[in-house]
């Protein structure tokens, strides 16, 4: 069952994107059936974590690395069937360093990079789907993937967010990181542990990849420009962002001064602080 986006509670930072997606949902759905053909695009699929890097937070019962690999393999199969060239940064339970993952992605032309993760938080109630991008070129892909995954999942919509994760910052091709729900949330963890739900996630991500052009083409230039105004989140601004982003943040957020004294402090926005728990694992 696909949700009506207009009924979902949206975070302010995601509002401009979500509004665009909502406004274009009819067009995207209409063209969905026509987006099934393969293309010359290479899709580099990055299953988060692996090997000694289990993912998630200490004490987490469900291993994130297993969930990400399973969804990635299902996605690989779906995309291959659609005629895409698919490359996996890992296809088994092995540890692959982040620079290696980026190098694999950057070695392909006419390619896109899709990182699959699940979220975690100390607060069990934290839940929802969120999708990250960094470069402007990655926004249409992020919007399309998020539209389908958040629309197809029973979880809440945490929005499309801009953040400088290593794998998003260092890749030279459109790159998106999708968080497919919280494994520390009992309900979302239960879903994630079913093969049918992981298949569903893979199908929605694949739909986003296939439909990325149609979703993007319905965004006019003003709306694309609005996407650029999505701020980098404050704790990233002070630690890993480039100087231009950092100065922009200083101008735009007084609240950020509170976190300047410590790189480890959480964001001042409670609803977004959960993501800090997985900051390290994704390369930041
Ligand atoms: Zn992860």
Keywords:
284 residues, alpha/beta, disordered N terminus, binds zinc ion
What does this structure look like?
With 284 residues, the protein is α/β, with parallel strands linked by helices. The protein folds into 2 domains: 5-217, Zn-dependent exopeptidases (Aminopeptidase, 3-Layer(aba) Sandwich), CATH 3.40.630.40; 232-278, no CATH class. The chain has helices spanning 15-23, 25-32, 64-81, 98-106, 139-152, 166-169, 186-192, 195-210, 212-217, 221-228, 234-239, 243-252, and strands at residues 42-47, 85-88, 111-119, 129-133, 157-162, 175-182. The protein has a 6-stranded mixed beta sheet, sandwiched between helices. Helix 3 packs across helix 8 (195-210) and helix 5 runs antiparallel to helix 8. Bound molecules: zinc ion. Zinc ion binds next to loops.
Task: Outline the biggest β-sheet.
Answer: 6 strands, mixed
How would you spell out the order of helices and strands?
Answer: HHEHEHEEHEHEHHHHHH
Strand content: 5-15%
CATH topology of the largest domain: Aminopeptidase
Number of strands: 6
Number of self-contained structural domains: 2
**Low-pLDDT segments:** 1-37, 220-281
Fraction in helix: 40-55%
What is this entry, summarized?
The chain has 284 residues and is of the alpha/beta class. Helices cover 40% and strands 13% of the residues.
Fold topology:
Elements: H1 15-23, H2 25-32, E1 42-47, H3 64-81, E2 85-88, H4 98-106, E3 111-119, E4 129-133, H5 139-152, E5 157-162, H6 166-169, E6 175-182, H7 186-192, H8 195-210, H9 212-217, H10 221-228, H11 234-239, H12 243-252
Parallel strand pairs: 1-2, 1-3, 3-6, 4-5
Antiparallel strand pairs: 4-6
Helix pairs in contact: 3-8, 5-8
The structure holds zinc ion (ZN).
